[in-house]
Design a protein that fits this description.
Chain lengths: 332, 332, 332, 332
């Protein structure tokens, strides 16, 4: 249940009521808002005069639901806008990992050349094996920040675990919580205390319900700027690395007020299928796409098989514009 | 291994060689072609002079593979063409089940109005419960045939099991083998003996490898006209009915020479998501789409939740044309 | 809803009521019983005086549910009994396929030696590839029947599709419907017309709900002798061939009145794990086990990797007896 | 590749070689051992004289593999021993969460009464919803430690994320890494620096390969005391909460040298099935079982549906002893 208190209610009083009804208290759009467990279905009559609106919800997808807030949230990344009524589909490109200054600068130049605003690359890699490349760490983040300053790009990079979340908050413009870290309460709680946009990737074994509930941890912590990212779920099929869940994307668009970004590169895991899938994602009318592109995929230190080369990426972006226009949207 | 014999080799000799190398013998594009198990990797030298080409393959995806036949097969459904170099994306619309003459005639008229060539509807329904509507049977097929004759449409309907495959061969223009019947050897073998186009739906628990191997049963039986249909696989996610596997569709386009059709209606199971998914499928550049549409979905005797109404379907088809054009294809 | 009519109600009257309430009518334990769709929740008052008991059910698991019939059904296979209050765990052993008289006779002798009553082997194989061994067909069934007569064993073999169900009814003592044929309405309906015991294997992509509903097709057809068999479901894990669903087995024991048999051999697909799993299955307290054993697994024409050899099988059966005794059951 | 250096090689030299061959260096059983990526298949000849043994491995399951170390590792938890050649199956019982001193003391007394050595309970709960009970935190750990001292029990509790791993190292005798935290590099790396036993639970969307690779992070960090725990994977089946993967348990027993513990309570999620499953797990011959038991399950603050009550647990443990004896093992 979400209880929006009147704007005249001050912090002390809001906290009093929150304590009594066992609710979270957040300050949102100029007023205090309380969120109880979804099992609570009624607000004590004595508080009715202090509340503007009370929304009873079926499950613990509350602040993220259209049942509470109909319109898609607008996320402003230092002026780059997605969601709301923008009809923007933001391309986010870059390599799997920062590997060197030369490499990441080539990526930054490519984004600049194509009018793309957001550069992605990993610095802390949550690899499956301890015996392979684990990322450049803070040095990688510093190189990304350098590219931001030099090329006027927004930077997105992944937090690996709760020990490096401060580094991401310091250096990144969007903090990516990866599929393997999605349940990490240390990360979720800390990200609730910042207002930087958070791109939350769905775990590959995670239901949509659980995914939205993880987003709720951030929202309930006080950060309204959460973006959902579907990047493929694990199924019995092994010819492709994962299975991109576009039925799930349709569900999120229908029931959640959070912007949705899709990641076809990680989903299929092979470059051959990325262009077709990226066009499909664009035709879904989503708020953005994450696509891996590397100056020389063959020598990439991670995810070599799924990264496009620069020419493939240039060719792809052209076709995406046409698909976006056909459905009344604009690639940014 | 596929052994294409020289065109001078006659049936008797072809069968002799087939018996010796333990191969299937089919007559394909004017010559005899032998297919052995994929574990056979070499043709005895004594037969080399009688073969035009020998293709060694990694697995039992043989006649359906691009490794053997690079170009997509052209399927001609009484003049309606898909695959090959047509760049056609064929819409196939209609209700889940034939329920009455009035109902199926409304569907036929809608297809006619929108310039769509193929009408779908089930007559023999493989329902999950014995206690619900099981379809109109042969009477349903007769109504479909009547609509074909009256409106100049092609008819596709589903075979339920080996006891009714003859009925489908008699009445339908395309025989649909459903997700639950995909492994049915009685059906697969009989469908190999006709040349009517077969639309083979992937089982919801079926790997791509197994799916293509089922197609091989039909191809090896002598019927070259097989179309693959992805209609959603079963995963852990239950907010949607199934998960449409577009990564799998990308894989099929890359590795198989069979045309690919997608069925977003059965995949998501809810009408709200069908338009977005149908646009995504179109942007994949596939050869066709199966979409369920009913004059009055609320009273449909099966799959009520996923069928579009006529106005929703009209609106959808318009947007599909724009998406198809953006990628150089044409909706038919 | 299940309506048990009074024993005084004759067939004509039972059919009249069935027609009026849109129900199936079966003759079961000396009286007529009607089954409606589970969406029907009330019997018209005018029929109350003709009914002994009316059971309203939540879903289309009706005749198979403990909600209707509390005790486990007793299945009598020509004197070999499982289910009911027997506390029997029946071992069913034999090779994947009948390959020759010599081979199947060795298997029959092994069963005889170990006091096992039921011999399994496939004659019609639903293989995934058309280019490999497809089974001996009716000749295989005749060899099995010969072993039955010579060694006093019960015979179980698999129906592949609706075109060969009559052969199985003629030759087998238990008709196995395999995982790939589980939805085959041609088979299910025909098996409802016999009273031979049916072992219905769960499809590897099939939910428990759907599985029980397929059993309902047979029960509603009039055959009360259905045994459920869990043989592994398809999951994301590929180190083993399938994942044996013992949680599902616990659910079936709790909610269904049908006996449950487990097949560890097909589940894991590798002989190394079969003994541990077979002991686990026995400790579950189920009604039987299907285990593949071959005189010489290395040369088996199908499923070579998962079949035990005769010595491994002898060693295993000894330990199963101890486990069964520990939980108050008896291996037969 | 694992390179066991001669015992005469000192730390400085070991590190030199490690740096040159890009390997991890750990001190294990009295000598330095180097581990490279599994893609390295050969040791430079110049180092041959300094190595005792070089083991080339297929994948990044190295220190955990029987290919390197045949016998199961012996884990000594302050005198309570599992693995090795003990043939012990350790019961680990207790509630989902510590809720109060009274509650956890009742649990401790039950363990004492039944001769069970290890008490489990969560203090930091990684809940799916932010709006429900999140655990007692450090206060819960302190209550557990009190029970250890008062009743002579070993204590196992779960680390939630990298921000509370130090608390667990301080208070627990076995540190449990839960299914949702399994990929957490902050936790894995820190746990590699202690020598306390680590119980690593398999993520419900995690392949066996990835699971073992996470164990490698701890082993490669220098902690040899890792126990694997299978607790159910997520599949399409929803009648039960998860699917206990006993095929996977058989695989782990066959290929890994780490002890294996099974958790039937979380797998099925319903108390009715826990006894049958616990007996099945015991019959698998594994090294331990985790079972949830609560003084009054109905009022439990988390996982109410799956916890046994004390009488059910007493009855269960009796039957487990018989099953264990039947296969030559001993419940401790």
């Amino acid at each position: 249940m979400i209880i929006e208190l009147k704007s005249s209610i001050n912090e002390t009083r809001a906290n009093e009521i929150a304590a009594d009804v066992k609710a979270f208290c957040i300050h949102y759009e100029g007023k205090y808002t309380l969120i109880t467990s979804s099992s609570v279905k009624e607000l004590d009559a004595k508080y009715h005069s202090e509340a503007d609106r009370v929304t009873v919800l079926n499950d613990d997808m509350q602040l993220s639901s259209r049942a509470w807030k109909q319109e898609t949230r607008l996320i402003d990344i230092n002026g780059v806008k997605i969601g709301g009524n923008t009809n923007h589909t933001a391309l986010i490109g870059g390599p799997c990992s920062v590997e060197s200054e030369e490499q990441i600068e080539q990526s930054a130049q490519l984004m600049k050349e194509l009018g793309i605003n957001i550069l992605r690359a990993g610095a802390f890699k949550p690899r499956t094996s301890p015996y392979t490349f684990q990322g450049m760490g803070v040095d990688g983040l510093k190189l990304l920040a350098k590219m931001r300053d030099k090329y006027g790009l927004q930077i997105i990079s992944e937090v690996r675990d709760a020990t490096n979340v401060e580094d991401l908050i310091e250096y990144a413009d969007i903090i990516q919580i990866g599929a393997k870290s999605m349940y990490d309460h240390g990360i979720l709680k800390r990200c609730g205390k910042t207002t930087k946009p958070i791109l939350l990737k769905r775990g590959f074994g995670t239901t949509l319900q659980e995914f939205l509930q993880c987003a709720e941890f951030i929202l309930a912590g006080g950060n309204p700027n959460v973006i959902l990212c579907e990047r493929g779920i694990r199924t019995f099929e092994t010819k492709t690395r994962f299975t991109l869940d576009l039925c799930g994307a349709a569900w999120m668009k229908q029931y959640s007020n959070l912007p949705v970004i899709l990641d076809p590169s990680h989903a299929i895991g092979y470059a051959y299928g990325v262009p077709d899938l990226a066009r499909a994602c664009t035709a879904m009318g989503v708020d953005g796409l994450l696509i891996e592109v590397h100056p020389n995929p063959k020598v990439a230190k991670s995810d070599a098989s799924q990264q496009l080369n620069h020419d493939e990426f240039r060719a792809l972006t052209k076709t995406l514009k046409g698909v976006a226009e056909a459905i009344g949207r604009k690639i940014i």
